[in-house]
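Lab meeting notes turned into a lecture example. A postdoc, R.K., suggested we walk through two folding results consecutively so the class can see how the record format repeats. The first protein's sequence and C-alpha cells come next.
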Amino acid sequence: MDAVTTPTAFPHPPLDLKLTDHPQRLALSNEAHARPYALMLTPSRVTHIAYLHRNLSPAQELWLYGELALRFGKTPPKTGDNHYNADLGPCRIKWARHGEFSALTVITPGLDAHAPFAEPALATLPEEWRQQLPGNVLMAAHALLLPQVEMPVGWQTISSKYFDGNDLIGAEIGEGAGMAYTDFRIHEDGFSRYVIADRYMGRRQGGRMLQRLFEIDTYRMMAFLALPLAKSISPELTEADRELAELTSAMQQAKQADEPILLDRLTQLAGRIESALSRTDYRFSAAHAYYEIVKSRISELREVRIHGLQPFQQFMERRLSPAMDTCNAVARRQRELAARVSRATALLRTRVDVTREQQNQELLTSMERRATLQLRLQETVEGLSIAAITYYTIGLLGYGFKGLKAAGVGLNVEVATALSIPVVAGLIALGLRRMRQALMKEHG
C-alpha cells in the first residue's frame, strides 16, 4: 500500500490589511462605551445632582472637576471631554454633561445604620470645592443601597425610618433582584431620597438600577419645565383666538377701504403667534423627548408591584402624563391657531388681489380708450401734416417752376403746380405710412 504523503505547509506571509478610517470612526465607537454605569458595593451611599448649565461653559466645568481631581492627586479630565469618572479614594465621582444639564454622582461605600442620611456621600468632597458647584439645580437626591437583610419589615416602617412618614412610591426592580423606594419629595436638606434593597443584584446591576432611578427623576423634572410655559402662554392664545374670531367676522362685512386695515391686523396677529411658537416650540419638543426617556427608563426597571405601594410607572402616568398632555394640547393649539390665521390672511389677500385685479382691469380699459383716442388724434394730425407738408412743398416747386420759365423753358407754371399737388401729397402720405410701419415693426 502506498504511503499517504501530506503536502508541505508553507507559512503565509502576513497580510497588510490597513484600512483608511472614517475621521469619526474611533469617536463613534467609543461613544457606545462612554458613561458606563458605576459599580455599586452594598451597602453604599450615593448623591446625585443634576443642574442646568445654560450659563456654564464646558471649559468652566472641566476646570471645576479638574480642580477636584488634582486635590486628590488624580488625572483631571481632558479638554473636550463631556464625561469623567474617577476613584478619589474616599469616594468615586461620575460627571457627565448632557444637552441642557450636567449630572454629578458621588458614591461612598458604607453607611451609618442609625443615621443613614446624616452623612451623605457628597459630604466626602471638600467643603470649599462644594461651594463652587453651580446653581440651577433641578434634581438632587441622596440614595442608600442596603442589603435586603438590613431593611425594616413593611413599607410603613421604611417610610417612618427613612422618609419622615411620607407616602411612598416603590416596586421590586430587576424582576425581583432588588426593591426601590422613594417619596419624590424634597426634604429639609434640599435633597430627595431613595432607598434600594439589594437582594441579588450584584455590583453592575445595582449601578444600572440606581442610575435609571436617578434618570427617571431628572428627566421627569426636565419634562416638567414645559408646564409653567404652557400655563403662561394659554391666556395669550385665548386672546389671539378671540381676536382672530373678531377679524374673521369683520371680513364678511368689510368694505374695500377696510381691507388694508384688516390685513394689517391679521399680519400683526400672525407675527405674535409665530413669536410665541419660537419661544415654546423647542421647550415642548424637548419635554416630549424627555417624557419618552422617562417611560423608557421605567420599562428598563422591570418593576414588580409591591402590595400597597404605587409603582413608578403608575406614579408617572398619574402625575407626569397629565402635564405632558397639557403641553401637547397647548402646542397643538398654537399650531392650529397659526394655521387658521394663515388661512384667514390668505383669504383676505385673495380678496384684496381680486379687488386690485378689477382696478387694474379698469385702468387697462381706460388706457386702451386713451390709446384709441390718441391714435385717432394722431391720424387726424397726420392728415393735417400731409396737407401742411404738401402745401410747403408745392410752394417750393412753384418757385422752381417760375425759375425754369424765366430761364426760357416753355412751362405753364400754374398747370405744373396743379399737377404736382396729387403727386407730392401721395408721396408724402406713402412716406409717412412706411415710417409708421417701420416704427411699429421695431417696437413689436
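The second example is placed directly after the first for contrast:
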Amino acid sequence: MKYWQTSRRKLSFELPLVMGILNVTPDSFSDGGKFASLDAALKQAEKLIQDGADILDIGGESTRPMSEQISVEDEVERVIPVIEAIATRFDTPVSIDTTKSEVAEKAVEAGAEIINDISGLRFDERIAEVAAKSHSGLVLMHSRGTFETMHSQPPVDDILAEVTVDFRRYLQIAIDHGVPEQNIALDIGLGFGKAFEQNLELLAKLDKIVYEFRSYPLLVGASRKSFIGKILGDTPPSERLGGSLAAAIIAVQNGAKILRVHDVRETVDAIKVIFAGIELRPQK
C-alpha cells in the first residue's frame, strides 16, 4: 500500500506515520488527568504537532485494566470540544479513539477524519456504517473479550493464528458495510488479551502479519505498555521511553506503517535514523 485514505486526504507512507496520543481522560494509565481541560489539551496538541505527529488520536475513555466504561454523553462531552478546537486551529488529521458509533458520528461531524476502534467492530458494528458514510479512515484493532474482561482473557494457544482469523472477520464486516479497503488500517492490539510472551511474539513476527494483510497498513501501539515495564523491572509508565522506542524500531523494521505513541519527538527521531541507515545500506 502507498497511502491511507481518510475523509480529507491521502496519508503517504514514504516514512511510517506517527500517531500522537492525546487522552482527555481523568484515568488513562500513563497520562490520566493531564489534558482533561480544553486549554491543556490544545497546548498538548500543539506540542505533539511541533514534535512531528502526523496524526492526533483523541481518546475520551480509558481502556486500561480495571477501567469502567463511561456513557456516550460523558465521552462526547470530553472529546468533541477538543476535536472541534484542534480541527479549527491545525491541519493535522484527527483520529477519534472510541468504540461507540454515536461518539464516532459526532466526532467526524466535529472534524475527525479517522475512527480508531479498539474492539475491531465487535462492540458496535455500526461504527463501520459511520466510517463508510463519512469516508473516514478506520483502524480495526485486535482485542478479545468484553470491555470489562479484555485485559483478563486466558491466553490462546496460537496468537498469530488468532489475530489472523479475527482480522479477516473484522475486515469482512467493514467491507460489507461499505468501507473502502484503502481506508482501513489494522492494529495488532498489543496488551489487549495477550500474555506477556505473546506481545513479544507479535512484535517479533509482525512481518508475517504484514505479509498476510499486505493490502492494509499495520499500526502498532506499544508505547509505555505494561509488557515493556515488566521487561525493565516493573518501571512506571513515565520511565518506559527506552523500551517504547526499542519496540517501535522492531515494529518499523518488521513492516509497521503507523506507530501510536506518547513520545512523538523521540519516535520521529528514531524513524529518521532507521531510514537513513536503510538508504545507506549496500544494495545486493
